[in-house]
Amino acid sequence: MSHQRKPKVLIETFGFCLSSIIDNGLMTGLFSAIRWTVSL
Fold first, then answer.
1. 1 falls in which pLDDT band (50, 70, 90)?
2. Given this model, what pLDDT does residue 2 score?
3. What is the pLDDT of residue 3?
4. Alpha-carbon distance 13 to 19, whole Å?
5. Is the dihedral of CA 30, 34, 37, 40 positive or negative?
6. What global pTM score does this model have?
7. What tens digit of pLDDT does each residue of 4-22 get?
8. Please, which domain of life does this record's source organism belong to (predicted)?
9. What is the model's pLDDT at position 21?
10. What is the mean pLDDT of residues 25-40?
11. What would the DSSP string read from start to end of 1-18?
12. Whole-angstrom distance, CA of residue 17 vs CA of residue 32
């Protein structure tokens, strides 16, 4: 059971973290990347 459940938990945790990062930081990160690219 634990061997089958562990990947699912990891995937769900990773997905949650990824969605949080996207929701909180996508626009900020995008604008930062654009400004950094322009400043080059």
1. low
2. 59
3. 62
4. 10
5. negative
6. 0.42
7. 677 888 888 888 878 877 7
8. Bacteria
9. 77
10. 81
11. -HHHHHHHHHHHHHHHHH
12. 20
Copy the structure tokens of residue 22. 């996207």
Residue keyed to tokens 């949080």: 20
Structure tokens at 16: 């949650």
Radius of gyration of the chain, Cα coordinates, nearest whole angstrom: 16
- Spatial separation of the C-alpha atoms in residues 25 and 21, rounded to whole Å: 5
Residue type at 22 in one-letter notation: I
Identity at 39, one-letter amino acid code: S
Q: Which residue has the tokens 């900020």?
A: 28
Which strand (E) or helix (H) includes residue 22? helix 2-39
